[in-house]
Amino acid sequence: ECTLNAQQIRAVAPIVCTIDEMWEKRTEASTCFANGQPSERCNCLWLGAGGSGKTWAYTKVLRPWFQRFFGFGRYTAGAPTHAAARLLGAEARTLHKLANISPNSALHRGAIRGQRNKNDALEQQILASLACIVDELSMSAADVYHALGLRFSVKRCENWALDLSRYLQEWFGKMPIGLQLGDFLQLRPAAQASLCEWVEVPSAVEPAPLTELQEAEAPEQASNAAELGRLLFKNSMGIVVHFTGTGRFSSCASGQALVAILQHMRQGTAMTDALWAQLQSRVYEVQQLQDLQTAPSRRAFLRAYWGALAWEQVARLQQLRAVLEAEDAGERLYFVQAIDKPTGDATLSSAQVSAALQCLNMTKTGYLIGMCPLFLGMEVRISCILPEPLLTRELPCIVRRIELHPKEPPTPPGAACVVLQYQPLGVLVEVADSDYGQFQVPGDDVPKGHFYVRPVFNKQSAWVFEVAPKQKLRLVRKQVPLAPQRVLTHFGLQGITARSGLVAFLNQPPWMKDGDYGLALYVMLSRATKLSDLWLIGVPERPYFEGFLHERNKTLVDRMSLFERLSVQNEQAAEKYIQKLLWRGNAYVNRTLGVSGTGQAK
């Protein structure tokens, strides 16, 4: 049984009430599923800081309800990244997958309407879904969000008797239950404004429609599809709940100090000198980090996550971490060299091959690392999309066996590190997730929960490599799709709770805007559960932790203030759902919510 706080009880009540009505109206009394039509659709928006209990309330309470009363194929869950989607359950997908698009897809309305019917399991799920969950709204690109909403409406149009001209008002094809979660004071999507940064107009109507040709030619930075996505989100706001819990953070003094720092950042207020001194006590110079490698705190240092704001740092930290971990484990470290081939008739010189391997940004290389470090027992993650549906990006694994190529020369005795001459045939990994314990890939004779990860060579993931000034080649990379598990960018860290701590490199990259830097600082600090679990490098001056986020993100701050006001109104209205469900007859609910003189919730 899951114990909810007052905010969580009020948040889940409207959704549970809708499920209850759908159960009462089910098409057959003998059926096990709540497939009746509710009197009104229930759209809920759950906002709040990281660790406030939003995702927990979904995964521990609502997800089991959806599985029991709707069935596994009759609700849809998604998030903008694989890591965020995995936190919603093994059935969740990325927004790109749900929208049937790739990073290179056209996103105007004509392109989405023109998608061919696959009639696969996912399309059948979209057609049958009675609930849709979207997490990490702040990172959800507005044009992808629009493509997702339009695709749902197009696929559900006939069965749900939809008027497609009203798809911006009828969220995701008249979805009976919608649940959206996030925190708009966290990271925006790359190179885009947030979903909540819609342009105010005299009335909430669709912008003047462009022709399909104009839509296709519209600049990506200010696309019509993106603004339509923001309007779709604006129209979706029904019941707003602003979570203020701090369940992620420790109740000890160090945990509460971190909570106080984060609240000052969110509220744009000045912290006390004593609190600033506590934050400064977690600042380290690079030399001090080197000393930690031999100090008693080495184990904690190597169990913590490592994060930075630029791939130039993350790529180097990945290699350093692998070397230290292998040394600590007493295991031989293997380096697997990527194979890069031009897509045309060109060839690469030895110097160009070496330069390609040194490309640091994995988002440019199809998420395949140039030199992949591996050792037995190493904690890794799947780095790119694989053909096997279960092996999603960011899935955490442990290396159990490395199948070297038959032609690989013998390894010198006592060698601590070996650069392999041939790529291995495969790497046997055990998935570090209990949900995968019973799964097996057909054809692989391995224990349940174990999978062979083989080198991938995907021509669809060609990347651009500058061989000389104004001379570029498109390369296709073959590599083992694994990377160190606990070294990530700030985008990779969002949504993660770093219970073992975080080594955070906070230097502002020259290309990063101040507004995004303020959000990135907040995300990095809010991953740990207490201040003493943070090792901070490159910390900016004190104003960056007080008014900086507010000053550089005025629209986001104003919209979050709007959502908080709506939440107060909805909190007062939540009592009708609680009364309808007869929850007031439960002693725990009464004790948690409290009762005023009128017998209503406080």
Description:
The strands form five sheets. The chain has a six-stranded parallel sheet. Strands 15-14-12-11-19 form a five-stranded antiparallel sheet. Strands 20-7-21-22 form a four-stranded parallel sheet. The protein starts with 5 loop residues before the first helix and ends in a 9-residue tail after the last helix. The protein contains 22 helices and 22 strands. A hairpin with a 2-residue loop joins strand 17 (463-468) and strand 18. Helix 1 packs parallel to helix 2, helix 7 (142-156) packs across helix 10 (224-236) and helix 11 (253-267) packs across helix 12 (273-280). 35% of the residues lie in helices and 17% in strands. It is globular.
